Amino acid sequence: VTPERLLFVVDLAGTLVFGLEGGLAAIAGRLDVFGVMVLAFATALGGGLVRDVLIGAIPPAAIRDPRYATAAFVGGGIAIVLHRLVTRLPRAVSVGLDAAGLALFAVSGAVKAHDAGIAPLLAVLMGTITGVGGGTVRDLFLARVPAVLRVDVYAVAALAGAMVTIVAIGWGRSRPSAMATGAGVCFLLRVVSAWQNWNLPRVGPG
Amino acid sequence: VTPERLLFVVDLAGTLVFGLEGGLAAIAGRLDVFGVMVLAFATALGGGLVRDVLIGAIPPAAIRDPRYATAAFVGGGIAIVLHRLVTRLPRAVSVGLDAAGLALFAVSGAVKAHDAGIAPLLAVLMGTITGVGGGTVRDLFLARVPAVLRVDVYAVAALAGAMVTIVAIGWGRSRPSAMATGAGVCFLLRVVSAWQNWNLPRVGPG
Amino acid sequence: VTPERLLFVVDLAGTLVFGLEGGLAAIAGRLDVFGVMVLAFATALGGGLVRDVLIGAIPPAAIRDPRYATAAFVGGGIAIVLHRLVTRLPRAVSVGLDAAGLALFAVSGAVKAHDAGIAPLLAVLMGTITGVGGGTVRDLFLARVPAVLRVDVYAVAALAGAMVTIVAIGWGRSRPSAMATGAGVCFLLRVVSAWQNWNLPRVGPG
């Protein structure tokens, strides 16, 4: 499998997962079927669009290649057809699904920025933005404070996964191995912190 | 009339209409005169700026050519001078005005994306974003859930107009004819749905 | 000092100040340490990122050069370490600090846009967006109506500073002199209006 192919598949899988998540959030918010598709699109592609614009990859991959939008809409469609089933699943499944999307996007975003010649610190930040960006756009649309600011160890997990990936590539590890390690770190960190209710320290009174 | 000229005039007319709308929303929200101008600018140019960045037309037309900002500010100025008159108009007029701006932007946005070599599915989405983007930016500024998610058959009308335009161009119709047909479809769909209170199906309980 | 060097130092100082402000807003909003860093980054670099994308300077300076992100995070770190001290300072200090950041960004943003060949009217608007953009992004994240729309004579001060700078450069004044004059006008206008509670006229009933 070529590196480009690997990145593409990882990206598309993340897009589908986040499209499904955005669609479910829209259904929970009592939006109509079109609103479901809008949120599926914004959640699935928002982070990647921002990243591509910022690293100078314009038009962004999601605009050049219709398969991204298609994956997002398929995710939104699954949300509409299967929402009764999906919302009845145990919380572990939805947390796991979200963690998987986060891990896929954090890793692919960091690698794309790195490939575009962005310095390591900022490639890590671009990976983090790719991971948390879609959910942030979704929350802004629903007029609520973004999860990235509310949920402890969410952006931290994306950051850790992106950092591990970039460090591993810097140490000469192969792409698939670096990406698998980074994605694993992000996924585990997110799932375990949600399970154990890990919190980051707050600053200030109280 | 050249195709470029036609696009420019359509775009500028939409800018003026949405500048007026943004200004009126700011006045209704009790903002000061400067806030009125900020919302006029953001509502009139927000959608086009996002579209131009995404299709790689950078700097965006609205930044390269001061006539866009001028049209937006003229719209905001009309809102300030005539708001007493405008808010006393029957609801049909304000819905019609908004539908006209939506139609002009959806059609010009789709054609601009198509001309930049964007695939049909995404050119249609870019037209939709151009149409609904400004109002979405305005609603985010006012910290409320965007109309695109609340109002049924709003983004759908923009999507339909953009789709008809792109399909008509694909079938070899002339620019002016394709754009007039698409704009007409969008305008009628929006006005009739507002008049008849058409709703899209909701998903989920209730 | 070369013009580039001057712009860079002014920009970096503004980044540090707004990073500190974003961090303090996050602490006041009871966010965790990571949320503090996210808001420091978004507040310090949001306006400049939007400006760079709009004037076609892609990747933006803040993505090409890690020193910008570092300055933002140092500002966020100062907020965490010294927040008890900083929040006990008289209001005059925090207003002055914010006015300084606003002035630095409005002036550097206008000059950068002007150097990129943007027309005067829009270079002034780009300076205004650079000044108020970061705080706007921060407020959107915290799901509140942006200060730019709530606080009188805020964006107006940024606009005035950017305008004075661009006019002075147009009249053949040297960079440092034009930028110092513009920054002084913005700073004084903001500080005096906050002190005197100047308000812009409202439009509409009441």
Secondary-structure element order of chain A, as H and E?
A: HHHHHHHHH
Distance linking N and C termini of chain A: 53 Å
- Beta-strand portion of chain A reads under 5%
For this entry, what is the oligomeric state of its chains?
Answer: homotrimer
Q: What value does the average pLDDT of chain A take?
A: 88
**Total of helices of chain A:** 9
Largest sheet of chain A: none
Query: What's the total number of strands of chain A?
Result: 0
Envelope shape of chain A? globular
Largest two-chain interface? B-C, 32 and 32 residues
Rg of chain A, alpha carbons: 16 Å
Low-confidence stretches of chain A: none
Helix content of chain A: over 70%
Structural class by SSE content of chain A: mainly alpha
Structure description:
- Three copies of one chain form a homotrimer.
- Chain A is built from nine helices and no strands.
- With 206 residues, chain A is an all-alpha fold.
- The radius of gyration of chain A is 16 Å and the shape is globular.
Keywords:
homotrimer, 206 residues, mainly alpha, 9 helices
